[in-house]
Each structure stands twice: as structure tokens, then as C-alpha cells.
Design brief:
globular, 2 helices, mainly alpha
Length: 65
Amino acid sequence: MALEYKKLLEDEGVKVEVLKTAGSEENLRLLQNKKVDIAFIQNGIAHNGDKNSLYSLANVFYEPL
């Protein structure tokens, strides 16, 4: 999926580097530590304290809570 988004973003002039990670928890840590600018994370992984620093750009899949 990341490669599909990479192509779409690069078509708009955005430089993209895809990183292989262990999943949502690692992606969240990378975001919090400002090692990446954008990442896929599963809904519900971030805690309330992250609300002021993280923004959801889109839902990729519907996930009922």
C-alpha cells in the first residue's frame, strides 16, 4: 500500500521514502520522535496526549470500534 501512496504523492511533486517497520506502534514512535512526517497507524493506537501533535489525514479501511 505504501508504494501506491508513494506514486500518488510523487506525481504531485512530494519526495517520498518508504521505510519498512514492525507496524503501527513503531510508526507512532517514529512520528512522535519526528523521524518521519507521515505514517500509517491503526485507529486507537495513539493516546489522548497525542491529540495536539497528530492529525489524521484519512481512513484507509473502515474499522468499527
